[in-house]
Amino acid sequence: MKAQPIVRVEDLRKFFTRGSEKIDVLENLTLDVPEGEFLALMGPSGSGKTTLLNMIAGLDRPSSGRIIVGEEIISRMSEGQLAKWRTRHVGFVFQFYHLLPVLTAYENVELPLLLLPLSSAQRRKQVLTALDLVSLTDRMSHRPGQLSGGQQQRVGIARAIVTDPTLIVADEPTGDLDSKSADDILNLLVELKNGLNKTIIMVTHDPRAASRAERVLHLEKGRLVRETTPYPERSANGATHESEMITQVPRGREDLPR
Ligand SMILES: Nc1ncnc2c1ncn2[C@@H]1O[C@H](COP(=O)(O)OP(=O)(O)O)[C@@H](O)[C@H]1O
Ligand SMILES: [Mg+2]
After folding, report:
1. Is 22 touching ligand 1 by the criterion CB < 6 Å?
2. Which strands form 5-18's sheet, in the order they lie side by side?
3. Mean pLDDT, to the nearest integer, of 217-221?
4. What gap in Å lies between CA 211 and CA 209, rounded to an integer?
5. Which of 14, 17, 23, 201 to mutate to test the pocket of ligand 1 (most atoms within 8 A of CB)?
6. Cα–Cα separations (whole angstroms), residue 245 to 46, 94, 184, 242
7. Burial (CB count <10 Å: 0-12, 13-18, 19+), residue 179
């Protein structure tokens, strides 16, 4: 049985303008992410992966089209509404961790909770649960500078999960890690999906990282060109299932100004 989509992207377009020049970054993107899926977005540098992820996470807004997460049409929200929505619904994992160097691991994980109406006892409970999930309870008083890259990213994952968000988004979460630490992080993401039914969208250009996801969407020049389904048990020969994306332009949009 296919789970209900938790994310729906409908006919999404995004362009930026630089002076009088218009730069199309995403064109006519339509995709669904079922609840509890671990999805990877792959594609060459500049293909629009981060732009797409940021729009799904409510950090940026489409030029046209709709994005629905859970019950809410986030593409219609004002900046202020989006900021509030993100706090509750999205956990972010970044390539370079984005931890505050003067705070301990514990305090870094606690940060997103300070924006929510919780008692300090509730916050403590959630922080400890999140740190336990990433097996860093014994390092909670360390500052980022006293932790390895892999440990810092585990703090990053604890911070992403601590609010129990609807969605976890990760932009190249293993991009700065050695392969052993990268595997630890990917194992954790798989665990969040399997154990907690978390929906995870991960941008990566590393095929090994992508192969840990259930489904991989391939972007090229702002379009979805392919969908692949890795089978970890067959990864010895790298076999995957592939299908071409239907990339037709929906009717009535061909004549939109470009
Ligand atoms: N704020 C912006 N203003 C102008 N162009 C942008 C902006 N953000 C991204 N772009 C352009 O959009 C394209 C896709 O960028 P990005 O989503 O970061 O790609 P990827 O993550 O796949 O490397 C690039 O050509 C980039 O230069
Ligand atoms: Mg990027």
Report:
1. no
2. 21-34, 5-18, 64-69, 72-73
3. 97
4. 5
5. 23
6. 20, 28, 31, 9
7. exposed
Mean residue pLDDT of the chain comes to 91
Closest ligand 1 atom number to CA of residue 53: 17
Decide if 136 contacts 164 (C-beta within 8 A). Answer: no
Mean pLDDT within 133-153: 98
**pLDDT surpasses 60 at 255:** no
Domains of the chain in sequence order:
37-50+79-244 (3.40.50.300)
Q: How many helices (H) and strands (E) does the chain have?
A: 7, 11
Whether the model clears a pTM of 0.85, i.e. scores above it, the answer is yes
Cβ–ligand 1 contact at 44 (below 6 Å): no
Q: What is the 3-state secondary structure of 151-204?
A: HHHHHHHHHHHCCCCCEEEEECCCCCCCHHHHHHHHHHHHHHHHHHCCEEEEEC
Atom of ligand 1 nearest to the CA of 23: 5
Among residues 96, 95, 131, 101, which one has the least CA distance to residue 113? 131
Cα separations (Å) of 195 from 1, 130, 156?
A: 18, 13, 19
Nearest to 55 by CA among 45, 65, 47: 65
- Please give the number of the atom of ligand 1 that sits closest to the Cα of 222: 14
What whole-number distance in Å separates Cα of residue 200 and Cα of residue 160? Answer: 11
Please enumerate in sequence order all residues whose Cβ is within 8 A of that of 222, keeping only pairs 6 or more positions apart, or say none.
14, 24, 25, 26, 27, 29, 47, 48
pLDDT, one tens digit per residue, over 33-68 is 999 999 999 999 999 999 999 999 999 999 999 999
CA angle 146, 190, 131 (to 5 degrees): 35
Check pocket membership of 49 for ligand 1, CB cut-off 6 A: yes
